[in-house]
Design goal:
Layout (H helix, E strand, L loop, with lengths): L4 E6 L2 E6 L10 H16 L5 E6 L3 E3 L4 H10 L37 E5 L2 E3 H9 L2 E5 L3 E3 L13 H9 L1 H10 L3 E2 H6 L5 E3 L4 H15 L2 H13 L5 H16 L2 H12 L12
Parallel strand pairs: 2-3, 3-5, 4-6, 5-7, 6-8, 7-10
Antiparallel strand pairs: 1-2, 8-9
Helix pairs in contact: 4-5
Length: 277
């Protein structure tokens, strides 16, 4: 049903592949709508623990398609097309306005999202990777913010998210210079969570998710992601209060009993799945 992405499942992991390799997977409105729709499919699938986002060919994502950028340059404003047949609202069960935009809606997903950065990563593609939960980066990948070289500001929420990942000084350096940096530097400054051998980042990400599926409760993973991103801008006291309330709920849940019993019996746990209405 998709024209510009591929969607597949490998055991407990869903894989979304941006599939415009001749443009290094530059994003069109259709690509973005298909990614959002596919993430909703992943959310709805009870057998899926999380999703890997990657690109076909030599690139992860080179940013917004240059034809679209040219039209925006002529118009002096943002443009966009709707694709009604792909309308979807993945995640964000609380309707939190912080998770309503794109790509900030990644933070509201119920399940982990790993960006497997296999090659060129720039512009909006860099923003997509920045808002993923984890980044597995091939050592020979090349990344750049690219905004300053187009006469733009830090777009798509990256001015909020990137300093939280790597600190304000590293973020400003990458914003100001728009220089290209490789996977090894991405790992050194804390942008990449895992540095992968060339060609291995997707397999490494799938393996990571499948290991989570074997040993960890999907609802625990969901709630911990919710805690982290909802509490980023809260003071400690209200964050502690909410976490304590949620902890009290978890102590009454079947997953807690199963977690303890499986440990005592030295077997793999059989945790409940996430059901989305």
């Amino acid at each position: 049903m998709y024209k510009e992405i591929l969607y597949a499942n490998e055991s407990a992991a869903a894989i979304i592949t941006m599939n415009r390799p001749d443009t290094l997977n530059a994003l069109t409105d259709l690509t973005q709508a298909e990614i959002r729709h596919a993430l909703n499919e992943s959310e709805q699938n009870e057998d899926t623990i999380g999703t890997v986002l990657t690109g076909a060919g030599r690139g992860f994502c080179s940013g917004v398609d240059m034809n679209a950028l040219g039209k925006m340059s002529e118009a002096g404003r943002r443009l966009g097309s709707t694709h009604d047949h792909l309308q979807a609202s993945p995640g964000n069960p609380d309707n939190d306005p912080n998770f309503a935009g794109s790509p900030s809606y990644f933070l509201g997903l119920r399940k982990p999202l790993i960006a497997a950065i296999n090659g060129a990563c720039a512009g909006l593609g860099f923003s997509y990777a920045t808002f993923a939960d984890l980044r597995f980066v091939d050592s020979n990948a090349r990344l750049t913010t690219s905004f300053a070289q187009r006469g733009l500001i830090a777009e798509h929420g990256t001015s909020w998210m990137l300093p939280r990942l790597i600190g304000p000084a590293h973020a400003l350096d990458l914003f100001w210079t728009s220089r290209k940096f490789d996977g090894e530097e991405a790992f050194r400054i804390g942008y990449a969570n895992k540095l992968c051998e060339p060609g291995n980042c997707v397999d490494d990400a799938v393996q990571y998710l499948n290991q989570l599926a074997k040993s960890c409760a999907p609802k625990s993973i969901m709630m911990m992601k919710r805690q982290v991103f909802k509490h980023l801008n809260r003071e400690l006291a209200p964050a502690m209060k909410e976490s304590t309330d949620w902890m009290d709920e978890s102590l009454k849940a079947n997953d807690f009993r199963e977690g303890v019993q499986s440990f005592v019996e030295r077997r793999e746990p059989n945790f409940s799945r996430i059901k989305v209405n």
